[in-house]
Amino acid sequence: MIANKEPKVTKDLANKKITFVREFDAPLEQVWHAWTEASLLDLWWAPRPWKAITKTMDFSEGGHWLYNMMGPDGTGQFCRVDFKKIVPYKSFATVDSFCSEDGKVNESFPQTDWNIEFIATSEGTTVKIDLTFASEADLQKILEMGFEQGFAMGLSNLDELLAE
Fold first, then answer.
1. Cβ distance 158 to 24 under 8 Å?
2. Does residue 1 lie within any of the structural domains?
3. Where is each Activator of Hsp90 ATPase homologue 1/2-like C-terminal domain found (predicted)?
């Protein structure tokens, strides 16, 4: 059993990058499915009391995931994840954006390049998430919006889902 489930977070402002490393007590295949299937993402992606509600998802290179991050007051923000490269059960790369309900990217918010890597370990699975921004200002804006804490909460939700 993995004792410390806090994400290891490294911020490299000069290179406009944040890295999260998080371990999970579950086999790689189970963790992979939780990251790549809409019905499972909807159960853990958003920090509580928010919810992720998938509108559409095509997990393939060139496909995208369109979801609404719905707050407890019923208001929401649509987000779009464009899948760039997928190596099944090893990694995938995306570009994440805020967008309209129909998926049109909102240029007033930063876009983020994500690379998510899955590594089987003797205790479960390690997931390494590298986020890269176009500028240090974009990185700072996302941090000021509470991304780090919110994403860590989502990863804790994933722990609970994997334990079921």
1. yes
2. no
3. 25-162
Looking up residue 57, the CATH number of its domain turns out to be 3.30.530.20
Give the Å distances, CA to CA, from 46 to 67, 71, 159. 11, 9, 13
95 close to 85: Cβ distance less than 8 angstroms: no
136-144 helix and 147-163 helix, angle to the nearest 10 degrees: 60
| Residue whose token pair is 């559409």 | 56
Tokens 């007590």: give the residue.
25
d(CA 109, CA 100): 12
pTM for the model: 0.94
Confidence of residue 5 (pLDDT cuts 50, 70, 90): confident
